[in-house]
Design brief:
DUF3833 domain-containing protein; mainly beta; Lipocalin; disordered C terminus; signal; DUF3833; 10 strands
């Protein structure tokens, strides 16, 4: 399972990478990413986990149902994972839009609150996850970066770290199922979407 692969990667942690990129740097980039629109409706995802050496350790698909409530400014994402070995998993996110550029979210295996900011075509989302492996729990941190491109393409990479050291990366490509989120979340009305994400 993905959690077991993360545990294996924890055994040999590299030096932490230091980055200075800020999501505000992308405030003038187009098309503008509207998270609550982009993820409304049905989405299917195809992903993989790579360890710190770049080796692919796990591949999986995800089916996501997204529901945006404009009255409460809340986006609910029901994510259902299926791995190549037929193992399954599920995560349900409740994400609140707290301001013009800010979001916060919770999920069952996420301690505390995830926080995110969206500017221009970019979204940065950080949170911790408690991974249960062989009766033990390991807390790791995800640093998610998403970038909306032309034609409704959304690219995302997630770096997984523990104690500031890289464990691996997760990438996922998403496509919108017919009847999914309005306008694909962008200002140009595109319906196609692909994403790399945790």
């Amino acid at each position: 399972m993905l959690r077991r692969m993360l545990l294996i990667a924890l055994a040999a942690l590299p030096l932490a990478a230091c980055g200075s990129m800020q999501v505000q740097d992308f405030q003038d980039r187009q098309p503008r990413l509207k998270l609550e629109q982009y993820f409304a409706g049905e989405t299917k995802a195809y992903g993989l986990f790579r360890d710190r050496f770049g080796d692919v350790r796990r591949q999986f698909t995800v089916e996501i149902d997204g529901d945006w409530n404009p009255e409460t400014q809340t986006l609910t994402l029901d994510e259902r994972f299926r791995y190549r070995d037929a193992e399954t998993d599920r995560r349900v996110w409740t994400i609140e839009k707290t301001g013009p550029h800010t979001y916060q979210g919770t999920a069952g295996d996420v301690p505390g609150t995830a926080t995110g900011k969206a500017y221009g075509n970019a979204f940065n989302w950080t949170y911790q996850v408690d991974l249960e492996v062989d009766g033990s729990t390991y807390r790791v941190t995800f640093d998610d970066w998403m970038f909306l491109q032309e034609d409704g393409i959304l690219l995302n990479t997630a770096e997984v770290t523990k104690w500031g050291f890289q464990v691996g990366t997760v990438t996922i490509a998403f496509r919108q199922v017919d009847g999914g989120g309005a306008n694909g979340g962008s200002d140009d009305g595109s319906q196609a979407k692909t994403m790399i994400w945790q």
